[in-house]
UniProtKB/TrEMBL annotation:
This is 2-C-methyl-D-erythritol 4-phosphate cytidylyltransferase. Belongs to the IspD/TarI cytidylyltransferase family. IspD subfamily. It holds the Pfam family IspD. Its EC number is 2.7.7.60. It comes from the Bacteria. It comes from Taishania pollutisoli. Keywords: Isoprene biosynthesis, Nucleotidyltransferase, Transferase. The record marks R14, K21 as: Transition state stabilizer. Pathway: Isoprenoid biosynthesis; isopentenyl diphosphate biosynthesis via DXP pathway; isopentenyl diphosphate from 1-deoxy-D-xylulose 5-phosphate: step 2/6. One of its GO terms (molecular function) is 2-C-methyl-D-erythritol 4-phosphate cytidylyltransferase activity. The record marks R149, K203 as: Positions MEP for the nucleophilic attack. It catalyses: 2-C-methyl-D-erythritol 4-phosphate + CTP + H(+) = 4-CDP-2-C-methyl-D-erythritol + diphosphate. One of its GO terms (biological process) is isopentenyl diphosphate biosynthetic process, methylerythritol 4-phosphate pathway. CDD domains: CDP-ME_synthetase. The gene is ispD.
């Protein structure tokens, strides 16, 4: 069985909205609901957790009722950091493959989800990425220096791992250099296997991102 942990703990400061970005309407439907529907479509038998701030759990339940959503899932109270939220969900996870996804990435493709699961099943991990299109420079004490673009990729979610590998990684203590689950798994000694992501799988963080997501739909 697969387990999906959808993290939705943001409060949307960069979205310039009083409503957290995961609840904003994207073509008439809340962003987070679109994300939930996508993962249910990918695997209707999966165990699904959504991590939410305590203060917004009741609001989410109201949205589920309003949009007549009956997709089975469990709400997990989020922690101070994303690390804490995922860790809370991991304690209840029973899947042999566990995927962690940003709730504000509603346009992940079924192909990407299945490629991540396959990577985790075959190699222990499956992390989606896209090649960098822009020129890249590294900030240095002297100013900046150019980088070889083909040596870098842009990382997305869901990041999928064998349950054993991910739970082992989350035994490490939190620190600020942990930027995603892949970085934590790598720190614990795991090997990260990359798979192809999809261009539409953007993380909705700003009003411009919302406009892009609307155009993709």
């Amino acid at each position: 069985m697969n387990t999906f942990i959808i993290t939705a703990g943001g409060i949307g400061k960069r979205m310039e909205s009083d409503l957290p970005k995961q609840f904003l309407l994207l073509k008439g439907k809340p962003v987070l609901l679109r994300t939930l529907e996508r993962f249910y479509e990918a695997d209707p038998t999966a165990q699904i957790f959504i991590t939410l701030p305590n203060d917004w759990i009741d609001y989410w339940n109201e949205l589920l009722s309003k949009y007549h959503c009956q997709i089975p899932h469990e709400i997990i109270a989020g922690g101070i950091e994303r690390y804490d939220s995922v860790n809370n969900a991991l304690k209840k996870s029973t899947g042999t493959i566990i995927g962690v996804h940003d709730g504000v990435r509603p346009l992940v493709s079924l192909k990407t989800i299945k490629a991540c699961i396959a990577g985790a099943t075959q190699k222990g991990s499956g992390v989606p990425c896209l090649p960098a299109k822009e020129s890249i420079r590294k900030i240095t004490p002297e100013g900046s220096s150019s980088c070889i673009r083909r040596e870098y990729v842009l990382v997305q979610t869901p990041q999928c791992f064998s349950a054993e590998l991910l739970k082992k990684a989350y035994q490490l203590p939190y620190h600020s250099a942990i930027t995603d689950d892949a970085s934590l798994v790598e720190e614990s000694g795991g090997i990260i296997h990359l798979v192809e992501g999809n261009e539409e799988n953007i993380k909705i963080t700003t009003p411009v991102d919302m406009k892009m997501a609307e155009s993709f739909l």
